[in-house]
Structure to design on (275 residues):
């Protein structure tokens, strides 16, 4: 079969750096939505453990192993992100939908990452509230987004059709935060 | 206003949309007749106090919420997942 080479969802070149914040493209090979059938959360949790060695995270959290991450992505929805698609055994207890080309992912890192994001999202970004490994569904300048807090900053996912707008607003906020910090010395 | 979503925690109201009265959760039986459906669809109380309402966490987890809100103070007295209320009835 012909293997087509993947195209970046972003038109502008990345990484982008401003002051103490950096933005990099972070597109995983696979993004799959896993939505447990009604009342099947416990069954899904057991199958996940068996086939992927991952536990089903509670709302606002994530789990991970060496190859895959499982992010809570909203009511009754989890995103399996990484090198592999979901095992077919999961289809007995959940609906599986490929989102690999439907969402795009960016990493916003550095000391000023939270200050940048605070301009675009109403989330409480304080480290004691939104901790590494936590996820949140919220907005990014009126676009629906999925956030993951990491040790170095944030992973930000938006629908692929929003890629250019998301990048535009993030770059603008980074430039503005860096400029204000420069003036303040 | 801030709304305490049972899944996401306390969030800014800009993430939510008002979706009508909580009365919409009590749909009449299919054979209840035109009068009952007329009431269900069109007739609303409008108290200057505590209202039962449906809100949708559109820019968040996308859950439907059944809330009690005092419309004279905008205070949210309770927030529950609409699905947990429906399933409790089954
Ligand atoms: Zn929510």
């Amino acid at each position: 079969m012909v293997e087509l080479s993947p195209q970046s969802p972003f038109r502008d070149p990345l990484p982008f750096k401003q002051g103490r914040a950096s933005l990099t493209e972070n597109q995983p090979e696979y993004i799959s939505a896993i939505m447990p059938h009604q009342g099947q959360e416990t069954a899904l949790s057991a199958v996940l453990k068996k086939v992927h060695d991952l536990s089903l995270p509670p709302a606002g959290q994530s789990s991970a192993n060496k190859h895959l991450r499982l992010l809570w992505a909203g009511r009754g929805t989890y995103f399996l992100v990484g090198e592999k698609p979901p095992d077919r055994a999961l289809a007995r207890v959940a609906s599986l939908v490929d989102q690999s080309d439907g969402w795009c992912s960016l990493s916003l890192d550095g000391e000023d990452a939270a200050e940048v994001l605070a301009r675009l999202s109403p989330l409480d970004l304080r480290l004691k509230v939104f901790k590494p490994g936590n996820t949140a569904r919220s907005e990014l300048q009126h676009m629906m987004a999925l956030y993951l807090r990491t040790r170095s900053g944030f992973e930000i996912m938006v629908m692929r059709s929003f890629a250019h707008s998301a990048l535009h607003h993030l770059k603008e906020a980074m430039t503005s935060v860096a400029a204000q910090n420069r003036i303040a010395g | 206003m801030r709304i305490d979503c049972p899944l996401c925690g306390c969030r800014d109201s800009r993430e939510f949309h008002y979706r009508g009265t909580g009365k919409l959760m009590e749909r009449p039986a299919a054979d209840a007749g035109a009068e009952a459906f007329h009431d269900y669809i069109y007739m609303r109380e409008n108290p200057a106090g505590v209202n039962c309402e449906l809100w949708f966490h559109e820019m968040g987890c996308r859950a439907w919420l059944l809330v009690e809100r005092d419309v004279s103070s905008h205070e949210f007295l309770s927030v529950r997942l609409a699905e947990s209320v429906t399933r409790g009835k089954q």
Q: What stands out?
A: The two ends of chain B are 33 Å apart (CA to CA). The pocket of zinc ion is lined by residues B 5, 7-8, 57, 60-61, 63 (CB under 6 Å).
